Amino acid sequence: MKLNHLNLTVSNVLETHRFLVKHFGLKDYGTLAPREAMSFLSDDNGMVLALFRAATGTELKYPPGFHIGFVQESEERVNEINERLREDGFKVPKPARLHGSWTFYFQSPGGFTVEGLC
What we know:
- By secondary structure, the chain is of the alpha/beta class.
- It contains two helices and eight strands.
């Protein structure tokens, strides 16, 4: 079995789209260009991540513990991503050894938690 797609509701589709491309290597999916209302990205394994804008006036709130994780090939790569996020002004804690992984968690521009790990 293979995960086909995941849909996330976000506060700002275009900002979140650009963030995921720049920092986690996702790529535009299909021929539909990213728009303010929705966009589609894919990873190297073909999984599709759909981003849909939250309805106007809706408070975007994911449950505690909800996050998406991006596995990296090495601790060095996790450190590089972490440092680049800091350089771009994100409030990101330094990576640490948690649950057997070299990892960090932080709030993405779209309103959900992201984990970078190896």
